[in-house]
Design brief:
The chain is of the alpha/beta class and about 250 residues long. Helix content is about 35%, strand content about 25%. The chain is globular.
Length: about 250
């Protein structure tokens, strides 16, 4: 059973302060993942390691060679922290940096050399990917969000469990957590769905929801849950229904 898990940058970092990791949270996340690491692809958000430097250099609207280098180097530092924590928790894992294995076209994944990810899974190694800058065939360069990576890899791998951990209990509407959202309900709720706390150049909750609805159109359900609550990650990996489920209309 292949599973795709994303942990948002808001869990792993303080998104209001550049290069500000949350070591205790990173360790907790790694420990929860270690309880069921088999056949799992982990994707993490860039948090303050990606969004703040990207904004400084005007990415993705402006093309900046220095911005690409600085932003990529920064998100790799966060990925290293996550991989090290997983290793200490006993998880066999390796980093996969999107800048080196995919090309975008108009900001969307056009080509992705995903063979290393598939081979790692075959050999019992957890691939760890992250939001990153990437070369774009039309715009020279852009940003590939962790949420876009979730949707793409879940489709390619035909994942049976797709869980996206954020710092809220799910998709909030009028002060309550919606149990389920389909494309049919989107027009009624999207104006009330905001962006993200702190700096975010990839669309926040609305961007997350749009990516997952595309996945739902293909018949693959997903869940948005609160990864900041202890125990929720382990529960989500077991396929338990938490937060808001994103699926097809009945």
């Amino acid at each position: 059973m292949t599973r795709v898990l994303k942990i948002g940058g808001s869990i792993l970092t303080d998104k209001s302060r550049e290069l500000s990791s949350r070591p205790d949270e990173i360790a907790r996340v790694a420990l929860e993942i270690s309880s069921c690491p088999e056949d799992l692809v982990l994707i993490h958000g860039a948090g303050s390691f990606g969004h703040i430097p990207a904004r400084k250099f005007g990415l993705p609207k402006e093309f900046s060679r220095q911005g690409l280098r600085v932003t990529h180097s920064s998100v790799v530092r966060l990925c290293d922290l996550v991989v090290e924590a997983l290793s200490r928790a006993g998880v066999d894992c390796l980093p996969v940096h999107p800048l080196s294995c995919l090309v975008l076209r108009d900001g969307r994944i056009d080509r992705f050399f995903d063979e290393p990810v598939k081979e790692m899974l075959k050999d019992g190694i957890m691939p760890v990917l992250h939001g990153d800058v990437a070369m774009d065939a039309t715009g020279k360069a852009a940003i590939v969000s962790g949420d876009q990576l979730v949707a793409y890899l879940a489709k390619v791998l035909q994942a049976e469990v797709v869980a996206v951990g954020s710092n809220v209990d799910g998709v909030l509407f009028s002060g309550r957590t919606l149990p389920k959202i389909t494309r049919k309900e989107l027009p009624a709720v999207e104006n009330a769905i905001g962006g993200s706390a702190g700096v975010d150049v990839t669309g926040g909750m609305r961007g997350k929801l749009l990516e997952l609805l595309e996945l739902a159109d293909l018949g693959i359900d997903s869940v948005i849950f609160n990864a900041g609550r202890k125990g929720n990650i382990a529960r989500a990996l077991k396929g338990e229904c938490l937060g808001t489920r994103i699926g097809r209309a009945n």
